Amino acid sequence: MIEDEAFLRAFESLALPPADFRHADHVRLAWIYLRQSRFDEALARLSSSILRFATHHGAAEKYHETITHAWMVLVQHALTQSPEATFSDFLAAHPHLLDARTLERYYSPAALQSGESRRRFAPPDLQPLPVMQSPSVFPSAKLRPDHSP
Questions:
Q1: 46-80 per-residue burial string, b: 16 or more CB within 10 A, e: under 16
Q2: Are 138 and 117 in contact (CB under 8 A)?
Q3: Whole-number pLDDT of residue 2
């Protein structure tokens, strides 16, 4: 595994091949940004970086705002439990983050397949995501506190 800074530089400079940016790499990018910034800033950075990366590689239609936002919440929630862990230790402590199907606990397929959820964050329809201390995590007042996943 390449060092965090080298990974971040390769991703942000668009030098990282799309085949080398899998689910675990999305989680890693979220983890890096969250360790560098507050949630709202990290989310904005993650969203714009992933969209830029996807657009550069001719796959802008793959970007999904709700999925990006929901994963960021899950990574932040885990990060509050393991703030000093290396990324490898972080994943070992939170293996559910490696399961790309984790969002199925919170969202039905119909909710995630809607065009609206692709463009704007949509609240989960099965069970709430874990709530962080910052109100900026959930811009919608429709969401309610939850317990750990």
A1: bbebbbebbeeeeeeeebbbbbbbbbbbbbbbbbe
A2: no
A3: 78
Tokens of residue 29, six digits: 């990018």
Indicate the DSSP class of residue 106: T
CB 79 within 8 A of CB 90: yes
CA 92 – CA 78 distance, rounded (Å): 11
Which tokens is 119 given?
């463009």
pLDDT digit string (tens) for 22-37? 999 999 999 999 999 9
In this structure, the number of other CB atoms found within 10 A of the CB of residue 12 comes to: 14
Residues 6 or more apart whose CB falls under 8 angstroms from that of 95 comprise none
Q: Using alpha carbons, select from 11, 137, 127, 117 the residue that is nearest to residue 67.
A: 117
List all residues 6 or more positions away from 115 whose beta carbon is below 8 Å from its beta carbon: none
Integer angstrom CA distances of residue 14 from 10, 19, 21, 41, 47: 6, 12, 11, 21, 15
CA dist., res. 40 & res. 89, Å (int): 25
pTM (2 d.p.) = 0.85
Q: Alpha-carbon distance 120 to 4, whole Å? A: 29
Q: Which two tokens mark 133?
A: 């201390």
